Amino acid sequence: MTASNRKPHDPGRRRLLTGALAAAASVIAPGILLVAPRPAAGRAPGEPVTDRVRWGLLIDTTRCEAGCDHCITACRTEHDWDNAPHSRPDQQAQWIRKLDVHNPETGYTFSLPMMCQHCENPPCADVCPTGASFRRADGIVLVDKHICIGCRYCMIACPYKARSFVHETIGGQKPYSPRGKGTVESCTLCVHRVDAGRLPACVEACTEKAGGAMVFGDLNDPGSEISRTVSRIATTQVRADLGLDPGVLYHGF
Amino acid sequence: MMRLTGGLLLVGLALGAVPVSAGDGVPLPTPARGKGTQCVEPTDTMRRYHMDYLLHQRDETVHRGIRGTKYALKDCVECHATPDPRPEVRALTLYGFCKECHDYAAVSIDCFGCHTPVSASSEGGSQ
Stretch A101-111: mean pLDDT, rounded? Predict the structure, then answer.
């Protein structure tokens, strides 16, 4: 990770604003906090996402065991993306995969999950001819399948090979995760869960069943677990040289 | 006289037949409504404008993350799902409800290429 391509956070300004709001709240009605402390996520119905939040994911590869695929299983179960019986293996959708990395010079071997890196400057969105690939204000990169024409330009542009194309008519979609033939798809950072104030399925599974290698949270909130952790340990963005500023950070290599 | 009798017969058929025949003889659709009693807007408004509501809401939800508002395809499914008319599908789906009117109006929709038409209350039903 280079220092230049990370957006500088200004915790001082945030603290000042929060303090001012809290002061205003206490003046209006002492004892009743009008500006309630915002939970980690969870917005009121009808409220749009804002760029005050930047969702991020920290993956500690020192806790990620080779051969463990609880994150993949959880993702597949959550979104049901493994149901294209007529497609060849290389055509099958793959929202998240495990990579085993080996440094032949030092012999150091580690394992990591790879999925959409939710870039600050997503190349998929840059090349999309219809505007279907886009970055939501809170940093989640999505495909609007209503306007995706299936050209797959984004799949070529993504340096992380994170996107898949649905080649056949599928059924049995989950109500919260619509998928269909002729559109490109990728990790949504479980946007339906995040909007409801829950953790992505992979993070939940890793915490409950595996080594707890994943931390999800708001990178803009200096008090969040992920912000406190990334300020304490060295983190890496994969292909940081491209200047895409991924929201997925890795530790351990 | 023959013409008059024929005319009367037609009128009789039109009055007696359920559903009532339209002028061109194509029967008006009578979709099964499922458990839906009162929709989020008056029935006439929904009949005319449901597509606009859904089109607007889909952009609001996908791009701006606005959820929990009153127009949601998921809620359409939950309220209006009925036993699917296709014999191979054993589940409560929106298929019957949508198909009746859209067939009548010669409108082909592709909502359910991606969105599931299966109601969560028919869990276990195969699609």
Answer: 96
CA–CA separation, A78 and A65 (whole Å): 22
Cβ atoms within 10 Å, residue B63: 16
Kindly provide the ipTM of the predicted complex, given to two decimals: 0.78
Partner residue facing B114 (CB), from A45, A178, A195: A178
Nearest CA in chain B to A195: B65
Is residue A59 a contact partner of residue A213, using CB atoms and an 8 Å limit?
A: yes
Q: Which of B65, B72, B71, B53 is nearest to A142 (CA)?
A: B65
Residues of A in contact with B91 (CB under 8 A): none
Q: Quick check: helix, strand or coil at residue A18?
A: helix
So where are chain B's domains? 1-29, 31-122
Q: Name which of A136, A171, A179 is nearest B127 (Cβ-Cβ).
A: A171
Identify the closest residue of chain B to A47 by CA–CA distance: B66
CB contact under 8 A, A146 and B118: no
> How far apart are the C-alpha atoms of A91 and B12, rounded to whole Å?
60
How is chain A split into domains, by residue range?
38-251
Predicted TM-score (pTM) of the model is 0.79
DSSP 8-state secondary structure symbol assigned to residue A175: T
- Give pLDDT, residue B24: 67
Identity of the amino acid at A140: I
In angstroms, the CA B113 to CA A171 distance is: 8
Q: Which residue of B has its CA nearest to A136?
A: B63
Query: What pLDDT does A11 receive?
Result: 44
Tokens of A89: 């293996």
Q: Give the pLDDT score at B123.
A: 59
Helix then strand then coil, in percent of chain B rounded to 5, is 50, 5, 45
CATH assignment, A38-251: 3.30.70.20
Neighbours of A72 (CB within 10 A): 19
Q: Is the CB of A142 inside 8 Å of chain B's CB atoms?
A: yes
Mean pLDDT of B6-27: 51
Other Cβ atoms less than 10 A from the Cβ of A234: the count is 11
CA distance A118 to A140: 6
pLDDT digits (tens, 9 = 90+) for A200-237: 999 999 999 999 999 999 999 999 999 999 999 999 99
